[in-house]
Amino acid sequence: MSPPRRLIAHLDMDAFYASCELLRYPELRGRPVVIGGGRRHQPEALADGSRRYARLGDYVGRGVITTATYEARALGIHSAMGLMKAAARAPDAVLLPTDFELYRRCSRAFKAAVAELAPVIEDRGIDEIYIDLTEVPGAQDPVGHDPLGGVRALAREIKNNVQRATGLSCSIGVTPNKLLSKIASELDKPDGLTVLTMDDLPTRIWPLPVRRVNGIGPKAGAKLAALGVNTIGELSRCEPLWLIERFGRSYGAWLHAAAWGRDDRPLVTESEPVSISRETTFEHDLHAVRDKARLSTLFTELCVRVAEDLHRKGYTGRTVGIKLRYEDFKTVTRDLTLPQPTADAAEIRHAAGLCLKRVDLRRRLRLLGVRVANLQRADAPLVPSAKRSARPGRPAVPPPASVLATGPGGLPPMAAERDLFEAFDPPAPGGAKGSVGGLAGR
Question: pTM of the entire structure?
Answer without folding.
Answer: 0.68
